[in-house]
Specification:
Blueprint: E1 6-7, E2 34-35, E3 40-41, H1 52-61, H2 74-93, E4 101-105, H3 108-117, E5 124-128, E6 144-146, H4 152-167, E7 176-181, H5 193-202, E8 206-210, H6 222-225, E9 229-233, E10 244-248, H7 250-255, E11 266-269, E12 276-278, H8 292-307, H9 310-330, E13 334-336, E14 349-354, H10 359-370, E15 372-373, E16 375-377, H11 382-396, E17 405-409, H12 416-427
Parallel strand pairs: 3-15, 5-6, 5-7, 7-8, 8-9
Antiparallel strand pairs: 1-2, 4-10, 9-10, 11-12, 13-14, 14-17, 16-17
The protein binds pyridoxal-5'-phosphate.
Pyridoxal-5'-phosphate binds next to α3.
Family: Belongs to the class-V pyridoxal-phosphate-dependent aminotransferase family. Csd subfamily.
GO molecular function: transaminase activity
Catalytic activity: (sulfur carrier)-H + L-cysteine = (sulfur carrier)-SH + L-alanine
């Protein structure tokens, strides 16, 4: 397998690339990530770098490139097998139950829109106002939006109260779906998913987990968490190419009209207009030729991460995160954004504001003068981020806080040097 990209974690950040091919080539470690030496990527929460194992899986399959589920040739059969094996790898990685559907989508946004499309008639959806837009906007307009909670415990209590109220006097058979994030994309704070799932089920509701930010950092086990649906994005999970997944209970999905109509989703099409019998299972919502390479790349990452010592990876990331947060806290005029107490668990994401500086200007300076990539803006969680900026400014007594925030996020391949370079650049701003 050859590729011209360099696994950046095998290199000091500013070193010359090592030869990639030939006898001097370093052994690829499955969880190395690709990158460009000299460029410090601290924007994993938007899109994580591609894992070597994903690039290798794609490179290996490319010569076999052919149709999926549509051809009798050997190339095609191998591609079909690879696609279905990727589905199994994703299912194993996410702890799917035997009868869950594993549906490839384009990303988390697509997966949650698919679930919204599959809701039974008269369903009620309950979310928190702190969700990413992808978990706010797809739901029917009558969705219940609970206020941003002040602690994980308050979230559980608020959901309990809301579901009790919702159930009062209504048909107990009426479908209710709770949709929550596993880790927030603005603050990285973790949500009490298992406790929320218990509450949801106690009230006869189902629960969907937006694991876009949690799955790259911590194991997500559908069965152990007790959630009914999980959505993830491949591009945040070290796999490129626009692949996401919706995993979960098959009944609503099999009863819903296909997400897209067309070949692959239809089991039988007769001569009359609309004389069609739709497939059940994942195929029902995967019409059209699928994104084979994206699925295979994601499957390869899932297999590699599933086999890795995730507790050790988590410890490394937490040590780096603690260094980043402590460094930011020590910088004058910098304040972190948070919903919960500062000690509550988080994944490797920190958003912050700099007093008297527009975030876009700071981000541009970090990029041009220091080769550091961070995110600035409202992070597709506008109501939440505006509120957290105002709260951060109030804690520090700032009168004119910036309109937007900065976000640094880390993961596989992030190093102490990356973090320190950011802190040094911010100190000299
Ligand atoms: C928590 C969360 N949910 C959903 C999404 C949407 O992901 P995608 O853009 O891959 O659809 C994001 C993206 O940042 C996110 O952070």
């Amino acid at each position: 397998m050859n590729t011209t990209l360099t696994p950046v974690t095998t290199l000091p950040w500013a070193a010359e690339p090592l030869p990639w091919t030939g006898p001097g080539r370093p052994a690829t470690r499955p969880l190395d990530v690709l990158g460009v030496p000299g460029q410090i990527n601290l924007d994993y929460a938007a899109t994580a770098p591609c894992a070597s194992v994903a690039a290798d899986a794609v490179t290996e399959l490319l010569p076999w490139y052919a149709s999926v589920h549509r051809g009798a040739g050997q190339l095609s059969r191998r591609c079909t097998l690879a696609y279905e094996r990727a589905r199994e790898e994703v299912a194993d990685f996410l702890g799917a139950r035997a009868d869950d559907h594993v549906i490839f989508t384009r990303n988390t946004t697509d997966a949650l829109n698919l679930l919204a499309h599959a809701l039974p008639a008269a369903s009620t959806v309950v979310t928190f106002a702190s969700e990413h837009h992808a978990n706010l906007l797809p739901w029917p307009s009558a969705a219940v939006r609970l206020p941003v909670p002040a602690s994980p415990g308050a979230a559980v209590r608020a959901l309990d109260a809301a579901l009790r109220e919702l159930r009062r006097g209504t048909d107990p058979g009426r479908p209710v779906l709770v949709a929550v994030t596993g880790a927030g994309n603005v603050t990285g704070e973790r949500w009490p998913v298992a406790a929320l799932a218990r509450v949801a089920h106690r009230h006869g509701a189902r629960i969907a987990l937006d694991a876009a930010q949690l799955a790259p950092h911590a194991p997500v086990d559908i069965a152990a968490l007790g959630v009914d649906y999980v959505a993830v994005s491949g591009h945040k999970l070290y796999a490129p190419f626009g692949t996401g997944v919706l995993v979960g209970r098959g009944d609503w999905l099999d009863a819903a009209p296909p997400y897209l109509s067309g070949g692959g989703a239809s089991a039988y099409v007769g001569p009359a207009t609309h004389q069609v019998r739709w497939a059940t299972g994942p195929a029902r919502h995967e019409a059209g030729t699928p994104n084979l390479l994206g699925a295979v790349a994601l499957g390869a990452v899932c297999a590699a991460l599933g086999a890795a010592d995730r507790a050790a990876l988590h410890d490394d990331e937490q040590a780096l995160l603690a260094r980043l947060r402590a460094g930011l806290a020590a910088l004058p005029g910098v304040e972190e954004l948070r919903l919960f107490d500062a000690a509550e668990p988080r994944v490797g994401i920190v958003s912050f504001v700099v007093a008297g500086r527009e975030s876009a200007t700071v981000a541009a300076e970090l990029a041009t003068a220091h080769g550091i990539g961070v995110r600035d803006g409202l992070f597709c969680a506008h109501p939440l981020t505006r509120r957290l900026i105002a709260e951060a400014a109030a804690r520090r007594g700032w009168r004119n806080p910036p309109a937007t925030a900065l976000r640094a996020s880390i993961g596989l391949g992030s190093t102490v040097e990356h973090v320190d370079r950011l802190l040094t650049a911010l100190a000299g701003r």
